Recover the amino acids of this structure.
């Protein structure tokens, strides 16, 4: 998988129009300072005048040694730059998941317990509106309100703690749109089940039945949905980090594409792919821990 992701990234960069040497030189010195001589020096330094498969074979050889190479623009080791940026991306992703869970889980559970009620209808409308709104539009609205109109925080960057709030809310609300309905449908299915009705027959009120028999069963499809949404989270991080100038791997990937920094693009795409696979594996393990039936089925 690692070789496939890196190879596809390499081929797509090579197929883009324009002079790659000029773009790399512009990334190093700026578009106002770059010259034909600087571009030619970059071409010779990076071997861009050589057949493309030489560079690809060299990257494969380094990958076997767990070496992602050095950035064509900054000259720093790619693994060091990604290690620094990955922490910011994980912080933003976890914050967005936290925002999503704080909103979607309680509202979804209440809506599922009272199907057809005011909360159910209100969450449906909110879910449709949030789902229809592109994340970058929501992000621009938050910047306009929080930074320009109310002057509560910076519009972007990471120099202040408050600058995490706007991108986390933007990404979290986008996840909330569907998570709220998933939690609602899961809770509705649980409340209609025989074991939940029997819990009520035993004399438990709705709150007791929910805490003892409802939450754990309703959590299974919600956790599984989070695993599916990891694809959206990885994609959304790229857009949101670029919009808010958040220094994560998504923001770095966009700059690397503009600068034709192929080693940085290959390394970033590789790490994002491995991160997605690792998080999905973690979600499967959490689902197996929540639902003992899954563990028993694997033993049989």
């Amino acid at each position: 998988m690692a070789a496939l992701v890196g190879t596809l990234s390499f081929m797509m960069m090579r197929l883009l129009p324009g002079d790659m040497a000029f773009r790399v030189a512009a990334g190093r010195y700026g578009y106002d300072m770059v010259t034909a001589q600087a571009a030619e020096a970059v071409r010779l330094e990076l071997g861009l005048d050589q057949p493309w498969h030489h560079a690809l074979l060299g990257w494969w050889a380094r990958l076997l040694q767990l070496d992602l190479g050095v950035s064509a623009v900054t000259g720093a080791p790619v693994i060091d730059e990604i290690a620094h940026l990955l922490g910011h991306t994980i912080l933003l992703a976890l914050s967005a998941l936290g925002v999503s869970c704080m909103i979607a889980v309680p509202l979804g559970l209440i809506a599922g317990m009272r199907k057809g009620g005011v909360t159910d209808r209100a969450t449906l409308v909110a879910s449709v509106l949030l789902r229809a709104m592109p994340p970058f539009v929501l992000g621009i609205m938050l910047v306009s309100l929080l930074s320009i109109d109310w002057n509560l925080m910076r519009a972007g960057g990471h120099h202040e703690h408050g600058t995490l709030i706007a991108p986390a809310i933007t990404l979290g609300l986008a996840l909330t749109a569907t998570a709220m309905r998933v939690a609602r449908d899961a809770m509705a299915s649980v409340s209609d089940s025989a074991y939940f009705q029997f819990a009520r027959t035993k004399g438990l009120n709705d709150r007791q039945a929910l805490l003892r028999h409802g939450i754990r069963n309703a959590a299974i499809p919600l956790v599984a949905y989070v695993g599916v949404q990891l694809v959206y989270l990885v994609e959304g991080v790229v857009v949101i980090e670029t919009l808010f100038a958040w220094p994560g791997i998504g923001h770095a990937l966009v700059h690397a594409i503009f600068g034709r920094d192929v080693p940085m693009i290959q390394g970033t795409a590789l790490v994002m792919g491995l991160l997605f696979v690792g998080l999905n594996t973690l979600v499967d393990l959490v689902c197996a821990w929540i639902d003992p039936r899954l563990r028993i089925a694997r033993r049989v």
Summary: The chain has two domains: 2-64, 78-299. The radius of gyration is 24 Å. The chain has a mean pLDDT of 81.
